[in-house]
Fold this protein.
Amino acid sequence: MPARGDIAICSQGHLGLITSDGPVPVTYANGHSVGKELNGVQAEAWVGIHLSPPVGRPWSSRSPYVVGRLRDVLIDLWVSQPALDGVEKAFGAATR
């Protein structure tokens, strides 16, 4: 099950960082919504930001494929880079 902070790929092959706590209704600036409405209910998607071009732009996926977790990436960096001691404060103690 996807979660906030997961790194995932959408159906278009774009890499994104999930920032929502769960699927939410999504309507784009052009008025189109994610997927089709079923019985008057708008489709929902996980939302976040692009990690691949266009980096930082809105990202969404109805069924994201999780490829990693941001927390794990940050801890791995902290373990390999002692200068990143701030990660310990953000994520708790870890073994170097």
